[in-house]
Amino acid sequence: MTSPNPFDIFAIQNTIALYCLALDTKDFARLHHVFTPDVETIYPFGGKREGVQSVADAIQKRLSPVTSQHALTTQHILLSPDGHSALATTYFTGIHFGKGKWEGKEVTVSLST
């Protein structure tokens, strides 16, 4: 029987941070290092998406008219006893600053994942 490796927590934290950095830098190719190829998501702006590229395309379309900054806050990661899975809860705030016709507009979003 294997036991959880505490360094897995750092890997999970780094992956969650990479998600935010991918969005803020608009380097959506980095999402291939965040999600598994068979990812399924449901975003309020894009409905259900399957596959990393589909998810990346939906996010890119949504964030194209803004500059964003995502800040991670409270985080809890629970590793399973066998070390094969984990449950992560992360709070973050995303601030979106409009560009072009949205210049001067700002939207703040707070979520828990």
From TrEMBL:
SUPFAM superfamilies: NTF2-like
SnoaL-like domain location: 10-101
InterPro entries: NTF2-like_dom_sf, SnoaL-like
Signal sequence annotation: none
Protein name from the UniProt record: SnoaL-like domain-containing protein
